[in-house]
Amino acid sequence: MDDDDVAVTLSGVTSSVTEGDQLVFKVALDKPASTDVSVTLFLEDGTASAGADYANLTGTAALALTFRAVLLETELLVTIPTMPDGLTEGSETFNVKFATEVTFDSEWGQSGSVDVSDQVVVGTIFDEDEAFLTISDATASEGGDLVFVLTNSAPTDVSFVVTCVLEAGSATAVDYSALTLEVPFDALASSSTLTVSALVDDLAEGPETFVVRIVNTTLPASHALSIPEPTAVGSIVDVDMQVSASIASDTRQEGDNFDFVVSLNVPAVVDITVSYLLSPLTASASDYSPNGVNTVVVNAGQTQASVVVEAVTDGLVEQIGRSHV
Ligand SMILES: [Ca+2]
Ligand SMILES: [Ca+2]
Ligand SMILES: [Ca+2]
Ligand SMILES: [Ca+2]
Fold it and tell me: Taking ligand 3, which is a single-atom ion, which protein residues have CB atoms under 5 Å away?
């Protein structure tokens, strides 16, 4: 390069912006040229992609610059819009380079060229998106599945896994089970599910609850992720809730004691008080004792209790009333 040669440099004016803003690059000559000098840039994808993360200007006049000698131009700017995309992704980059060597005519009418192939400026796009991960409550009957829906407000450009734990409430580990507590999120996915089975136990116990807690994700730290409320409630509906009682007939000799067996269809987790009424058929109230409304308790975990009635005479048939506690 002799004194007449033109030095050409490429630099960033605003080479790092948040997505949606504009990047600005500058091409400069060290001195005005004697004839027009044409320069063409090109944009090379890195982690950022043309058309998705920044404007695809390839083949457009925006990248073809001409320094007009008559105006003594020595600086030209190129503006490259970046694009918001709603994706949580971390910072992305692309390269700005010269498409070809730069040619010019010297003051003496001789053509020259400048090798600019080693000049590269990196454009950086900062991500403006932040993923908010939430988890819904779920309900199922014993024998069914609770399906917890995890939702990501701003899907990610990479797949990741969310790890949950189950915390006992009134329901404990004997009441539920999960094949896995690792919830996969595909890239671009806005939701995924965690399935927990509600176990059958033949116990009448009422509704029970437990907690699902998000404890970890494998999303890279470069990606902004918030989990403002990491827990959800799982509710198990008891299918054994309908406790019903029945009583068996009994026949005794006079002077003997009747032993009516009161049975529950399922054992309960609490004591069940059953009220019953002795009412006369062929026997009169004076034939047995006691009479009137009485109660008997079937203990928690048990299914039977006895009602003992003294047979003053024969022919007693009972009727039964029920109550649940
Ligand atoms: Ca992007
Ligand atoms: Ca983004
Ligand atoms: Ca249970
Ligand atoms: Ca049950």
Answer: 175, 201
